[in-house]
Amino acid sequence: MFEKQVQIPSASELHSTQPLSEAMKKIKKERDELVREVISGKSDKLLVIVGPCSAHESAPVLEYVKRLGKLNEKVKDRLVLVPRIYTNKPRTRGVGYKGMFLQPDPENKEDIVKGIRTIRELHLHAITESGLTAADEMLYPENYSYFEDVLSYVAVGARSSENQMHRLVSSGAEVPVGIKNPMSGRIDVLLNSIFASQHPQVFKYGEWQVATNGNEYAHAILRGMVDFHGNDVPNYHYETVMQVLEGYQKSDILKNPAVIIDANHSNSGKQFRQQIRIVKEVLQNRSLDESFKKAIKGFMIESFLVEGNQKHNVVFGQSITDACLGWEDTERLILDIAEKA
């Protein structure tokens, strides 16, 4: 049984009540193109999608993004920094906290309308104060329309990459969509998801039958895998990256071969400090092999103001989901990536 509680306004209604200014639209257009140029290989910059596992509270996220905006001025000749403002992120078992979209206050009950308004306000402030547009995970495809005008990058998670609706909505997104390998780690499944996302589709979206043109900037994210016994198995190494590249090359239809390395999750075994080592190892491999270098377009890094995590929202700027790098380590790592890019 479904108990109707609150009617949610349409995306267009909420866009109109919290619109982007013309200056913000200009920033987003320029930022979207920067990300596309990296994925397509037109730019040799590296993409760094970095920020908290889950954006659970506006104030620390905004402080983080402001710091990232200042750091961006030092590295923008070599990197494209995209803050993670992940607002649909639930706990792994799907019980309890389910992200800002459902719970704008992680300690209180669900309030979706307030959640949407809180997220839009956060994005508008972040763009104004940092000059950066953000990334989010498309956990629920039907929610994407509420934020499509503020995001410059979208990720599809490992548990969602085999889902047909995620593939269909990715085909209509106007920004690059990174698709993570499934939990099994199967590269053929990952490539099938990219194939579906890059091609035109017709499907039901909201109250409409819609048609898409396909998203040629859909690409691969390697986040590690989980074996039959539940053990984390990394896949950021040379051999797996080249396997993905070979899959691209065997297809005469897939466009813009690109791989992003997710330095956390099963690649690090959720040992958050291992992200530093993993990024440096990938950078070293880029310096040794030209094909590997061309394939690797950047990194995903989980980071917040304070390292580690907490069960409840007590420490300002510390994750309440997966453990993250702290700001000082993050800043050093980003400067290191820029130097070796």
Task: Provide the descriptors you would attach to this structure in a database record.
alpha/beta, two-stranded antiparallel ribbon, 8-stranded parallel beta sheet, 17% strand, TIM Barrel, 341 residues, globular
Task: Describe the protein in words.
- With 341 residues, the protein is α/β, with parallel strands linked by helices.
- It has one domain (11-340): Aldolase class I (TIM Barrel), CATH 3.20.20.
- The chain has ten helices and 14 strands.
- A hairpin with a 5-residue loop joins strand 9 (225-226) and strand 10 (232-233).
- Helix 3 (58-75) packs parallel to helix 4 (112-130), helix 5 (164-172) packs across helix 6 (187-198) and helix 8 runs parallel beside helix 10.
- The model has no long low-confidence stretch (mean pLDDT 96).
Blueprint (SSEs and pairs):
Layout: H1 11-17, H2 22-40, E1 46-51, H3 58-75, E2 79-83, H4 112-130, E3 134-137, E4 151-156, H5 164-172, E5 177-180, H6 187-198, E6 202-205, E7 208-211, E8 219-222, E9 225-226, E10 232-233, H7 238-250, E11 259-262, H8 274-288, H9 290-295, E12 296-302, E13 306-309, E14 318-319, H10 327-340
Parallel strand pairs: 1-2, 1-12, 3-4, 4-5, 5-8, 8-11, 11-12, 13-14
Antiparallel strand pairs: 6-7, 9-10
Helix pairs in contact: 3-4, 3-10, 5-6, 8-10
Short description:
The chain is α/β, with parallel strands linked by helices and 341 residues long. The chain is built from 10 helices and 14 strands.
